[in-house]
Specification:
single chain; mainly alpha; 2 domains; three-stranded antiparallel sheet; 11 helices; 3 strands; elongated
Length: 283
């Protein structure tokens, strides 16, 4: 940031109303933050939520020198801020957690856009956008997507098992093997790692890729990568149970494969990001 005087006092005085409003947003929404922290603590799908806010602050801080003040306030920011306030009122009245939590992000984003100005906001917009990943997916969407993903994973797994000659039978989301039954539960649907992989793909794309097409492509690619990695996990467990032992599949393979598959998916995202950067370097 460029200040007329390079002191913290001048900065705080210039932006005092923005900081006061930000503090009010945080204090008035303590129940919302408490609910988020509870979900991060008790839901493994969103344990990454603890890292989102610090990373967003870092993303803002790393580009602070590119911001130029004084800046012309953005009227659009006021509209987004007002929409967020309305969402807080309606979400609180209806007891709708997702609406309330998204509204908090909107109020912070609207406040930032207004006081930073459009030109400055274009440089650090991702720091505000990244906050979305700390919000759990609405339960209705999560449960609606879980069963189709369970069935797809089980169908893909049984297809590959038949292809390699492993005797197996599928009924719904349950795969029957000789002396072993593999159930594709909610935790095995692929949604468990998808939210975290999407957040990491978005962050990696923003930090390493220019423009918006390539980061968006990497972000979208995280979905099939997560699904394929999860199918590989199920396949490994099934083959291990059939070829080695059922106890190995239930204990060692089932627990360890989850971590290995997640990090494998993460490595694939990193490799894909490098591939997307390669044409730019070559040119």
């Amino acid at each position: 940031m460029n200040f007329s005087k390079d002191t913290l006092a001048v900065h705080l005085n210039y932006h005092k109303y923005a900081y006061i409003l930000l503090l009010l947003i945080i204090l008035l929404n303590i129940p919302v933050w408490a609910g988020l922290i509870y979900d991060w603590l008790h839901d493994d799908n969103y344990s990454h939520g603890f890292l989102i806010l610090p990373v967003s602050i870092y993303l803002f801080y790393r580009q602070k020198r590119e911001l130029v003040f004084p800046a012309r306030p953005s009227r659009t920011g006021i509209l987004i801020f007002a929409a967020g306030c309305l969402g807080l009122i309606l979400g609180t009245a209806a007891g709708e957690l997702f609406t309330t939590r998204l509204a908090v992000v909107l109020t912070i984003t609207g406040l930032g856009l207004h006081y930073l100005g459009t030109d400055n906001f274009k440089k650090i917009w991702f720091a505000f956008f990244f906050l979305i990943f700390m919000i759990p997916i609405p339960a209705i969407i999560y449960h609606s997507a879980t069963l189709p993903m369970q069935l797809f994973a089980s169908k893909a797994t049984i297809f590959i098992l038949h292809l390699i000659g492993v005797p197996s039978l599928r009924q719904g989301n349950i795969i029957y093997l000789p002396q072993y039954t593999l159930e594709v539960t909610e935790a095995c649907s692929g949604l468990r790692s998808l939210a975290t992989l999407l957040a990491l793909a978005a962050l990696y794309g923003n930090l390493t890729l220019r423009g918006w097409v390539r980061p968006l492509a990497l972000f979208i690619a995280a979905v099939p990568i997560a699904i394929i990695a999860n199918i590989f996990r199920l396949l490994t467990t099934a083959i291990g149970a059939y070829a080695i032992s059922t106890s190995l599949a239930e204990d060692f393979l089932h627990e360890l494969s989850g971590l290995l598959v997640f990090f494998s998916a993460l490595i694939i995202i990193v490799i894909l990001g490098a591939i997307l950067r390669w044409p730019k370097k070559r040119s």
